[in-house]
Amino acid sequence: MNADEIDALLERYRVAHSRIAANLVDLDDHRAYEMLSGAEVGPVTSARLGEGFDNISLLWSGLTQLGRVLDEAGALRSQGRPRGERGKQLEELLLSNSIEFGAQELESTGLDRGDRGLLESPKRSFTIDELLVMMASVYEPIRDAIAEIDAVWSEILPRLDAARTSMSSMREHLSGADEPAEVEAAQLAVDELDRIVLSDPLAIRHNAGRDLEAAVLEAARRVDAMVAERASLDDDLRSIDTRLAGLRLLRAKAAAAYSEAHAKILDPSDLVRVPGPHVIDGHGGLAERAKNLAGDSRAKNTAAGAIALTEYRSWDHLALALHAQLESAHRKNRAGLDTRDELRGRLIAYKAKASALAIAAVTHPTIADIAESAQNELFTAPIDLDRAADLVDRFAEAVSRSGGDPK
Q1: What pLDDT, on the 0 to 100 scale, is given for residue 145?
Q2: Domain-by-domain residue ranges, the chain?
Q3: Alpha-carbon dihedral of residues 28, 32, 37, 41, nearest 10 degrees?
Q4: How many angstroms separate the Cα of 1 from the Cα of each of 16, 85, 131, 214?
Q5: Range from 141-145, 304-308, 330-334 that averages highest in pLDDT
Q6: 349 vs 271: CA distance, rounded Å
Q7: In the predicted structure, residue 301 carries a pLDDT above the cut 50
Q8: Which of 190, 248, 304, 385 sits at 20 to 30 Å (Cα–Cα) from 366?
């Protein structure tokens, strides 16, 4: 080799040495390497790294030996042009197996067995070019895994911190109330990521960050709804007297309809017995339970407020159920009476029509008899609704045949 070729080779190796040194320093300072080296790494990340971290020392040893060879070659080159023995020494350093490793250093890489593409037969010494290839084969998988881990952390750690803060805030707002299922699910997602994010980051699913955010947002919406429910508790409690008054009135109407139908309708069907006033105003009734509700607005964001909200929900459920029961009873108990009133209205309308058409009892005695029978049936208790309906229909038909229009 002439002087220019040796100088070019020296320069290439020196640039390589500088780059390797910079990369190893960056790797040594990288947060993933700092946190995972020497720690117990989870199975997925461990499988991805292999024995990469164990081989870092081999890279530093190779860098040291490369530096030694370059220093020796630089010293020889500085003595003058590479001629004779000096030239042979330079070529020996730069082109022959001038780098040596012990078998133990190479054990984790498998390079001492010569079963990788770098070496065709077992050997423990390398040329500089072979060293660079070997170091690249050790470094690049570590570099790629570290980059992958860093990408996971860059995505997950900020989201995880935000999720922890949000969960803490939610618990403050719940103030001792039972956690809804959405909050429990979000906490499970946080705990799962907490468990593996530092020890086994490559085990984290690709969409774990988005799934975590979705779970936390769903929990936040549920907590907001609960807080809003507590905020409206005072208004709900202030409306209780109005609701109780409405229930009392509805119960009285349903009971009155039952009594009236029972007395005035012959063989009424589907009548519903109505509970007595005690269901509202008796011991343990809705009015008494309403007095016991913890409705102090100062407690609405405390554990006591959560209890009050739970108690109100129970009271509200009972009040709504009673209202539905009373409405149904009133409707069924009024059915026969409403039919009676409808028949009375029809009879009055047909009698007015007959009068307008001058259908006199003298000239139409049958019509008059039917009208009187219908009148007696509909205005004398108990009423036979079937007979009354038949009489009204017959009267309407008779008026129609006599020139009137029953419609």
Answers
A1: 85
A2: 3-147, 149-231, 235-334, 339-401
A3: -160
A4: 20, 12, 21, 67
A5: 330-334
A6: 29
A7: no
A8: 385
